[in-house]
Amino acid sequence: MTLTILGLGPGHPDDITRRAWHALETAKTVYLRTKEHPCVSDLPISSFTSFDDVYDSSADFEHIYDTICARVLAAAQAEDVVYAVPGDPMVAESTVQRLITRAPERGIQIEIISGLSFIEPALAALGIDAIDGLQVYDALDIASMHHPPLNPDRPALLAQVYSRAVASDLKLTLMNQYPDEFDVMLVHGAGTAEAQIERVPLYAIDRSERIRYLTALYVPPLGHLSSFEAFQEIIAHLRAPEGCPWDREQTHLSLRRYLLEETHEVLEALDAEDPQALSEELGDLLLQIVLHAQIATEFGEFRMGDILSHVSQKMIRRHPHVWGDVNVDSAGQVVQNWEAIKQEEKGNPKRQSLLDEVPKDLPALFRALRLTEKAAKPGFDWPTPDDVLAKLHEELDEVLTASDDPHRAEEMGDVLFVVANWARKLGIDPESALRAANAKFERRFRYVEAQAEAQGKPLKDFNLAQMDDWWREAKVNGL
């Protein structure tokens, strides 16, 4: 038996191909994915079966598509069948892809008769050329996501925005990448006499009264070099023979210091709670990552795709409570699961110590925190914060009674280590707390310097009492 799948074009009967028309004329059994298509009443068929009732019976599109496929395949096993879809069968038709995969398993031969898709008349209505990087997606797929898989430097055409409910879900996904006020265009009935272009801000697409089953959404390029791909091209260009001599000379090791510097500048922006600075500093940190990826690409070590694939698979694998059937009751249980999965991934290798996983180059205070966290996992920990405080007093006494400078330095290190442990027991990140204290000291000392400068004298000409008064002023002023 043969299952003929043909396209009805975008809406006008004159756009149906002669081959498709002939197939309909000679067909004994015709199935339409939907009868809600402008040219249905003009088709050369006396009867047909549509699947609009399936759409009305469920909101689960996977279930809808599977049901349609099951019915078409069951009919095609008994006789030759024509299955007609809007536009072109190979453009935004999920049922067709399922049929192409499943028909051979049942001994059914597939014949595809192409049609004019919604894309060509939409391009004509918009006055754009698809060759300029046009991305075509099913709006239903994107509406079900949390972040759109779109390159924002390229235009996109999203099919099947057939209801305001779909438009509402779609805009929420798109607004994870595009500004709320970004102008987009709803394309209604492209290829029909009622074709219209409606320009609206992204946040308002679901307010349109014109949305129908022949509505698509055009998203223009965001511009401003907004895509990850554009950034990769910039870095690759810098490393190219015609690029920058400094960038060409860099290696993984030579960039090490810059990676550390940019990481600390990100932390500084976080401490300042400055979103604009954070945006810029994250960009500088990303520069280091992309530079390392480009260097690795040139030397055949790995590519950016390897980095993204590895971390994406790891995130999915280590979150079985999100992408699997594992149940968790708390964030603590998530961490426990994470560690267990991590050890399983490594094949439970024989390790020298629990502490092996703590990087040696971390800032000392932060590394002290991580060391005590690891040691606490098997129970090597003080029961309460008060127990740690008692240990702190003990270490302070040992600093005071130290017999010489080397001994005193050693005991001071013990004090700092216990302070990091105490902070952990109190739920405080000691590294962040110390950075905040450093920033506070800097603000207040700069205020003291400014007061001295206002009086036209160097700071050293003022006694400690005067400087302390200014310090208290800075504190009262909220610095």
DSSP strand content: 5-15%
Overall pLDDT metric: 92
| Low-pLDDT sequence parts | none
Classification by helices and strands: alpha/beta
CATH superfamily of the largest domain: Tetrapyrrole methylase, N-terminal domain
Number of strands: 10
Number of domains: 5
| Alpha-carbon distance between the two ends | 82 Å
CATH class of the largest domain: Alpha Beta
Characterize the overall form: elongated
Q: Tell me which oligomeric state these chains represent.
A: single chain
Short description:
The chain is an alpha/beta fold and 479 residues long.
Structural description of this entry:
With 479 residues, the protein is α/β, with parallel strands linked by helices. The chain folds into 5 domains: 114 residues, 3-Layer(aba) Sandwich (Cobalt-precorrin-4 Transmethylase, domain 1); 100 residues, 2-Layer Sandwich (Methyltransferase, Cobalt-precorrin-4 Transmethylase, Domain 2); 74 residues, Helix Hairpins; 78 residues, Helix Hairpins; 46 residues. 51% of the residues lie in helices and 10% in strands. The protein is built from 19 helices and 10 strands. The strands form 2 sheets. A 5-stranded parallel beta sheet has the order 3-2-4-1-5, sandwiched between helices. Helix 18 crosses helix 19. The protein is elongated, with a radius of gyration of 33 Å. The mean pLDDT is 92.
